[in-house]
Every structure is written in C-alpha cells, then in structure tokens.
Structure prediction request, 308 residues.
Amino acid sequence: MNNPLFYAKILLFGEYGIIEDSQGLTLPYSYYKGSLKFSVVDSEFISQSNNSLKKYSKYLEKLDLPNEFAIDIVSLQHDISNGLYFDSNIPQGYGVGSSGALVAAIFAKYSIHKLLPETISKDQLKELKKVFGILESYFHGKSSGIDPLICFMNLPILIENKESVDKVNIPKEEIGKGAIFLIDSGIVGETGPMVQIFFEKMKTEGFRKTLKEEFIHYNNACIQAFLKKEMNPFFRNLKNLSVWAYEHFKPMIPKSIYHAWKKGLDTNAYYLKLCGSGGGGYILGFSKDYEKAEKMLSGFQKEVIYRF
Prediction:
C-alpha cells in the first residue's frame, strides 16, 4: 500500500439526472489510474502537478472539515515541498474522473482517521460523499462528491438519490456478443459550460417536466434492468433514453458524434448516451452485437468496458 492506485470512474447512468434526484450507477475503470509519488527528477508534467498540489493544499488549509474526516495538511505540504506529485494517465475533460482520483488519493494518504473502503457503512458513505464534494469543489465550482467517492471505494456505487448512495454488485461479465464501450469524441469537454446550459434549460417548465417524467423514468428503469440483467427491458429503455438525449441534450452531444448517434437509433445496432457532462470527451455506447456496431462506428477510437 505504499503507492495505492486510484482508478478512473465511469458514470453509466445518471448524468444530469442526479442533480434532480434521479438514480445513478457508476463503476471504477482500471484502464486509467493515478498514484501519488515523489520525484527528484524535474519534468514539465511533474513540476506542473507539484505546483497544482501546492495551490490545492492552500485551498484545503482553509476548510473546516468534520473531525472524523480531517486531513493532515502539515504532512501534505511537507511532502509537496519534497517533490510530491500525482502520476496519472487519466485524461482531463473526458468525464472519467481525473480530479476525483486525485482527491481520493490525497484523502486516502493524508486523512488523520483512516477509513477502509470494505468496512464503510451506508451512513459513513453518505457523510464521505459530502466531504468529497467539498474537497472536489476546488476543481469544478460545485461537486456532488460522487467521483472521488467511486475512486476511493474502487467499487460500483448505486446513487439512490441526492442524499443516499450504497455499494452495489453489478452482473458478472460474460464473453458474449454484447458490449458497453467508450467512444472518443476527439475533443476535450468542459464540465462548467455544459452544466450551465443544463441549468438554463431547467428554467423552462416544459424541459423540467420532460426531464422528470421521461428522462428520469428511463434512466432509473435502465439501472434496475441492468442490475437484474434483464436485457430486453434494458435495451428498450436505453433506446428511449438515447432518443430523449438526442432531442433535448443536443448542445452536450459533440458534433463529431451527432450523425453516429442518429445512425444507432435508426438501425438499432447500438445506442449512445453521454458519459458525464458531455461537450466532448467520451460517449458511452451499448450494443447487443458489438462486432456489428464496431464496423458501423469505424473511424472512431473505441474501448470496450464491459461484455455481456
């Protein structure tokens, strides 16, 4: 446990909906990871990371965290002055939790009262999520705390509502024809502007109504069907979710993906949805026949994250 790794995360379901109390389902993604390390070798990356940590530690200094979640700032700043940096291959602006992994790594190493993910109760999870929200707000302006929580726990998490989260078992992977996969939009997304667009839309009564009655309904139904491994209702609701996003989240869908999104809906060969806030980064794809979907999506860089 000298340099524990903190994995990226993927929000399978719940983007934007969790702001309005929908359910969410998120899981660790071990392809990308980060770890706190020391270095005497100076490179641009290490120097930038070390400087970022220095600025972040100033922010942490001013926080008044509950005692049981207190951070040893003195040790953190001492280590930063001795070359501490965050060695990470998690892409920034791709919706896979680059800041979440950093926050989780710092909390794991420098929290005064150590918490073991396997022994954390549901009540502690709720409190930890709040604390992580405060710790990550430095990077995003306002954070739900979900990303660092996933990265810290390294387990799938079911977001039951705004307040409550719990550990959850997802169906075991099987080597079947189907897959959940990531598509690289080729551009970096920025969370802030996308969330701003969402809040502007929320000022319209019609949008609020359809979000509650349709989007959240399809989103929650997808989660329940996926966890029960009921693939027919899963794909039925997934299509509805993808159609809804195509109609209502157009500004969040990267232009490079727009035609591919529609093609999936027209052919039923695959369905696409946002991975996080959108605007760029990764898009999530779901297909009962990945080989067929892969051919239809040639030209895009893809990564399979789950087989069924």
Remarks:
- The radius of gyration is 20 Å.
- The mean pLDDT is 93.
